[in-house]
């Protein structure tokens, strides 16, 4: 263990060294054993490995006398989260599209069921936000923090969902989660709730893209409509009752790339889950936008 880099409700995050390589170590409190088990189980899913999903190395339990530490060891990315990166880094269209496309690719792989000699179940994240996406050295993204994720195997036709009703981060919760309309037995519902959150992440990134020499300072979604730590009631009022969404800056209208991004995010955060785009659709649209600008994927 070299130095602590973060702290969360489940424990701490450290940068460590393993075989001379830097690694990230998530240390769970002993009381959070269920979360540690759940996240380890998700990371150990068959065929989950993908360049845009955080690379899992190992999980371990360390007992020191009366103290038990639960470790989850993954690849280390020094840029930190997309949230940290966007706060400090203005983007050009190419950088914005790379971040968006790589995040969509990771989400698409997570959401997809893959049939081979072994089967990778479809997985819904359930806590997508810019703090749970990491930025790699090459300025592409990988999806992290899979502790609340749920798996679905089509042959079982059932969702393995823990009993806790409201999960995730309030600011990013889809309308159907906030007003408790989400069909807990229908797996597609969880995927569509992820897509709503993904629309907000696209908005965060697009605001940091320079056009006409202008760039907006980083803000969280709904920053102008909500208190710093909104309650579920605050969120419900804005998202469900008033059906408000983050404002699209007027400068986007005169920039083709940002105009298309605005359209894309609007189709992700639609009020009706059935009209939202899928991760695959978003990935394909972003790929087209990159091709039209001769950006290699």
From TrEMBL:
Its EC number is 2.7.11.30. InterPro entries: Kinase-like_dom_sf (IPR011009), Prot_kinase_dom (IPR000719), Ser-Thr/Tyr_kinase_cat_dom (IPR001245), Ser/Thr_kinase_AS (IPR008271), TGFB_receptor (IPR000333). Residues 1-290 form the Protein kinase domain. Its cofactor is Mg(2+); Mn(2+). It is an enzyme of class 2 (transferase). One of its GO terms (cellular component) is receptor complex. It catalyses: L-threonyl-[receptor-protein] + ATP = O-phospho-L-threonyl-[receptor-protein] + ADP + H(+). Keywords: ATP-binding, Kinase, Magnesium, Manganese, Membrane, Metal-binding, Nucleotide-binding, Receptor, Serine/threonine-protein kinase, Signal, Transferase, Transmembrane, Transmembrane helix. PROSITE patterns: PROTEIN_KINASE_DOM, PROTEIN_KINASE_ST. GO terms for biological process: anatomical structure morphogenesis; cellular response to growth factor stimulus; tissue development. SUPFAM superfamilies: Protein kinase-like (PK-like). One of its GO terms (molecular function) is metal ion binding. The keyword Transferase applies. It is a single-pass type I membrane protein. It is found in: Membrane. Its main location: membrane. Pfam families: PK_Tyr_Ser-Thr (PF07714). Gene3D superfamilies: Phosphorylase Kinase, domain 1, Transferase(Phosphotransferase) domain 1. Belongs to the protein kinase superfamily. TKL Ser/Thr protein kinase family. TGFB receptor subfamily. This is Serine/threonine-protein kinase receptor. The lineage of its organism: Eukaryota, Metazoa, Chordata, Craniata, Vertebrata.
